[in-house]
Amino acid sequence: MDTSPAIDEFGTLDYAPPGLMDRLWADGWRHFGDCFFRYSRTEAENGEIQVIQPLRIPLADFSLSKSQRRILKRNNDVVISILPAVVDDEREALFLKHRERFTTNVPESLRDFIPSPVPDRLPCTCLNVEVRLDERLLAVSYLDVDIESVSSVYAIFDPAEHRRGLGTLTLLEEIRWAGSQGKRWLYPGYATAQPSIYDYKKTFRPMEYSDWNGNWELLERTAQGGTGQANHSQIPRQAGGGVL
Q1: Of 28, 44, 80, 148, which has the highest C-beta tally within 10 A?
Q2: Contact 116, 34 (CB under 8 A)
């Protein structure tokens, strides 16, 4: 039985001083630019009300799965760089390819998700994980950084290269970088307690979820190989696939 409170909150914040994002992420907040939001329920396309689960990975305990190792091996020919976050013509062009995957609520621009004029430092420090093959940009993700934690904001990739698993690759590189910097947690965004297209996030182990009551619990695998719970702003909901 779900006992989490009903939450639907949003606000704006131009600048987050060091340490504030750590606290906001731990309380289930997400953001695109200066638009901050958190919500504990969402309505699926079939009308079902689903329970939102903020997720985080305890980095000290992270371990690669077999499929993730295969993705790393499959991409041993690419060059990965960590750079200050930017939104430029090259990234916009990649975004236009990436959005071809969407069938409803198709976003207009990468700036729908990264609207800050200086995304590398406002509202907080943000990095790009950039994947290239022979100078061609295949994928880029946006990673917010604070004192103890990092948070995945958004990732785009060339759909023609979907067999590479580039979304997983950029998240794996975010995990590697954050661990090397001594961070404690990586927040990959929201999923739902019910099965959904966001279940791919739960393949990163171990994974914790917030019960919206201030507690973080371990998300465990069920006997059927899926996942289950241990011990028991409109923008993101309208913006298209892959942003929950």
Answers
A1: 28
A2: yes
Phi/psi of residue 100, each to 5°? -60, -20
What residues are paired with 185 via a beta bridge? 58, 149
Rounded to whole angstroms, the Cα distance separating 206 from 59 reads 9
Phi, psi of 5 (to 5 degrees): -70, 155
Specify whether the CB–CB gap between 71 and 165 falls below 8 A: yes
* Beta-bridge partner residues of 192: 52
Buried b (16+ CB within 10 A) or exposed e, 203-239: ebbebbbbbbeeeeeebeeeeeeebebeeebebbeeb
Q: For residue 76, with 0-12 CB atoms within 10 Å meaning exposed, 13-18 middle and 19 or more buried, which class applies?
A: exposed
The token pair at 92 is 């916009």
Whether the Cβ atoms of residue 1 and residue 13 lie closer than 8 Å to each other: no
Tell me the torsion sign for CA atoms 159, 66, 197, 115. negative
Nearest to 104 by CA among 243, 239, 233: 239
- pLDDT tens digit at each of 244 positions of the chain: 677 899 999 999 999 999 999 999 999 999 999 999 999 999 988 889 999 999 999 999 999 999 999 999 999 999 999 999 999 999 999 999 999 988 777 899 999 999 999 999 999 999 999 999 999 999 999 999 999 999 999 999 999 999 999 999 999 999 999 999 999 999 999 999 999 888 999 999 999 999 999 999 999 864 334 444 433 223 343 334 445 6
